[in-house]
Amino acid sequence: MVKKSLIYGSSLAVATLLFTGCGIKTQEYNVSADNVSQLRAYEGIKINVSEFSATKAGEKSTLCRMAETITTPKGESFEKYIQEALVAELKMANLYDKTSNLTISGNIEKIYGSSMIGDAFWEVSVTIKSSNGKSIKVDTKREYPSAVLAYTACNNMASSFSPTIKQLVNDIINHKDFKSLITN
Q: How far apart (Å, rounded) are the C-alpha atoms in residues 38 and 84?
């Protein structure tokens, strides 16, 4: 009986170490040379970005495999992270001006991450609105490598968040109607 308890306890301890953790932060956003290059085509236009909103306002973490919490790097909400990413890209392209009357905002309708084996991805849906009355809807899905062990899969999930947001920004600025958002 003692031997059985010892084996059970040891197995539980090993499983706990392999499949759980304390939480993983995503990477801080770094601008994309491709995004900046594409935005520079709009030279001379000045754009302000107002606060982004979200269907699940204030959400800043998601659970990975019921074991790890994936959080934004500074504890900011997902909508704030995405807003700051867009602002960073516009600043680098010399298009951002917080005093501009032309303002865009966004609403994050969906942000979902999956770390399932063979089906690991981030999915983000956003509506971008302009002060000129026009809007666009963008859906971005970016796959990433998963793994059998939760520790590896959740690290992959966290490290793929920032590249997913880069892809989202790219999808926004390459949307066929993006130009209509930033012209009067």
A: 18
